[in-house]
Fold these 2 entries.
Entry 1:
Amino acid sequence: MLEEALAEIRSAPDARALQLLRVAWLGRKGRVTERLKTLGGLAPEERRAAGAEINALKQAVEQAFDERERALEAAAVQAQLERERVDVTLPGLRPAAGAHHLLTQVMHKLTDVFRTLGYEVVVGPELEDDHHNFEALNFPPEHPARDTQDTFWTTDGRLLRTHTSPMQVRYMRDHRPPFKVVVPGKVFRNEAVDTTHEAQFHQLEALVVGERITMADMRGAIEAMAVALFGPGTRTRLQPTFFPFVEPGAEFAIWWTHPKTGKEEWLELGGCGMVHPNVFRAVGYEDVTGFAFGFGLERMAMVTYGVSDIRDLYRGDVRVLRQFRGVA
Ligand code: DAH
């Protein structure tokens, strides 16, 4: 009987079959149990030996069940490990990470340069008023210089700032010199849109005010920026021009090698000058001098990275965006 039980138990294919066998052998009406019941019918002198024999049988059967159970469990774990095996040598899936827009990259690069030079980075409102955008910057009400900055007016008489220069006025009004600040930000002009003009673009404005700040300091600041952007030895040029809020005023350019044509040429970047006495008067400053400069980021980004149509910077076309992932 033991041999028969062991053979069945050892060939049970799974836990369920084993459970059925357990009932068949050890259950209330199981074969081993039935055998135990026969003890009652034996003569007392036979009972002892038969009892020992049946108990040994029962123990052996129980032990076989336990062993088979453990073996089946181990096999199940092994099978699961096989099924869920991971090939750690397969190449990974690259997560779809976003990236900064080219203009944002250029902006960060510039503000990093100026932070290194000790400037504070501040921002101001895009919705401005006539006073900050024009009046306090020495544009009188009917002055023709206003015509160069076609303005979007709101119905309540305010305007979208046409340049970042109004932050000069706001910053000076709220702070005492000496200081060095740069103001990156969006500006707006009512322009006919074409490959080099958008109604919305970005500028970076710098303002440095203190005692005995000179044009040489301005030159040095512009040159430091040029060197940081385009490498050691980069040259800069100033050409006299007019902006109402500076005197003297100039246009500044950087001598560089055009990445597409390979030609060396002057890259006209922006305007600069010594802060006009009328601007200092408008914010109540006395006995200080200062310089300011400002320029457009789109133009700088376009010539540096070979973007020929400004509108490509605003279309949000991923084919364009991908080309400028992590360039600046
Ligand atoms: N705000 C001027 C513009 O948008 C640029 C400019 C010229 C800024 C001269 C300056 C400056 O700070 O000194 O055309």
Entry 2:
Amino acid sequence: MIRVMFVCLGNICRSPMAEFIFKDMVKKIGKEKEFQIASSATSGEEIINGVGNPVYLPAKKELQKHGIDCGEKRAVRLSAEDYDRYDYLLGMDSMNMKDMEKITGHKCGGKMVKLLSFTGKNDDIADPWFYGNFDKTYSDIERGCRAFLECVAP
Ligand code: 4NP
């Protein structure tokens, strides 16, 4: 079993998009039983009185454009324990990576890296919450997920 946690700031745009894009990819190659896939936030911005907000509508719509359903996913926060629970903790940008170090108490590198590092370029995935452009977000995440999948299930 390969356990994968995608992480972003709010867990309502990029990391849930990555979670469901990656689930779809893994399903298409018949390997869904070999993976446990989740996503979480570094911040509590989208969790109100313990209840996480649903996936942001433009992110949900972008997924639907590609035939992907994100179900009833709601934002949850990354915990220190997740570091041991997951084999890969994949952040979207450099700020996520710094926050992930603080939350987990572990240095980045090894199993805790940026998603796009698997493409050979360690770029950030820009936050569409601030910058819009959900189709660019989708294609960046899709590229990252494809490269990651090639790495773990060649
Ligand atoms: P995400 O986008 O990290 O891609 O889910 C954001 C969503 C909400 C906030 C920040 C980023 N926020 O501050 O509420």
